[in-house]
């Protein structure tokens, strides 16, 4: 099938490459001319394991092309995916400017029978706005549908190739047939391709992210109670997660959730609730609890060192909002680093892949970037562990203790055992577990 994907970011690139891999003729478009040039040269502007090989293979075999001519791309596809960003507006609502821009371009270039699929995460009611915008430019009949994406950065290829489920909101048999044909190769193992109405599909994506964020904020608050009472949140997690009605995933207390999805999607859903006069009080609390959690490492540091951190040097391990990605959007590390800098401290940061993005887009020269995690600890007054990269899980603690000015560790991901850190001679501050002073 001829497929167009408009927007070649994390989602668009993965969708385009995976659909090309199953034999479709895919054109990916983006307004970012430099990005398109580097993609056509086989260079992937983001870090996503396995994506470079997938793109290179499909480029060289002629099933995948990139273009900055969005109109021409729109003329190519029998099926057009809209996969542009939907960043938060000032009031927390999803900003649909890019989606509707693309809809206009599609309207000016569409041929009869085209299936237009919203892949971006968009509030309930957006497919109707997309339809209206396209209809302003054409009389040709076409179909709109909603097909939200559930991939996780860092495991995106696998998630797309072997999805738990694929959700499709459709209102015509033609759209249903096209989606079925496109996705059949990915659900051969029997995982469901779930068809529903468009509004329900649009809402499903927000509901899923909001539920996951709720679990995290719930555990983060529970961790505070654990610290206050002498309980251990890791043990509580294991005990409760073994109940199959609860399940084990997304029960980890930590430094707060970040990334390009949870924070913005929770806020956008609250905003949709407001629009329809439904007060989503639970989600307001989820958001507020997370804001507080992102400040927790900073406040633990202030409690230990006081409000004035001048002359002190802090190592930070992990900048990306989670491992296996270079995505820094709303990363908890940023909140911590800003707080240290504002209190007069200096920061030496390390991340295996996100340092360039951190320097280029967020921190500039305000922090030092270390060549490895050990160098980051040299003469540090404390170490903060913010992202649970694998390489941080079993470090050489003796070497680190030699390098640091003070053997003090604030662990925002509960990677280590308090008893062991005590034995190694560290002050150790995990989240929701015994604090070793
Ligand atoms: N990143 C994720 O893990 C993830 C997962 C599921 C869903 N989503 C959703 O998918 C959507 C895209 O997310 P992303 O992370 O890929 O964003 P992104 O910022 O990485 O990529 C968006 C791309 O769209 C391009 N773009 C913007 N306006 C355009 C236009 N008018 N025409 C063509 N291209 C245009 C940008 O240049 C950019 O390359 C969002 O709605 C997001 O919420 C993201």
In terms of structural class, how would the helical and strand content be classed? alpha/beta
Low-confidence stretches: none
CATH homologous superfamily designation of the largest domain: NAD(P)-binding Rossmann-like Domain
Q: Which ligands does the model contain, each kind named once?
A: nicotinamide-adenine-dinucleotide
State the separation between the terminal residues, measured CA to CA. Answer: 63 Å
The CATH architecture of the largest domain would be: 3-Layer(aba) Sandwich
Order of the strands making up the biggest sheet: 3-2-1-4-5-6
Largest β-sheet summary: 6 strands, parallel
How much strand content do the residues show?
5-15%
Would you tell me the overall average pLDDT? Answer: 97
Quaternary structure classification: single chain
What level of helicity do the residues show?
40-55%
* Number of discrete helical segments: 18
Shape: globular
CATH class group of the largest domain: Alpha Beta
Please give the radius of gyration in angstroms.
Answer: 23 Å
How many domains would you count in the coordinates?
Answer: 3
Looking at the structure, the CATH topology of the largest domain is Rossmann fold
- The number of distinct β-strands equals 14
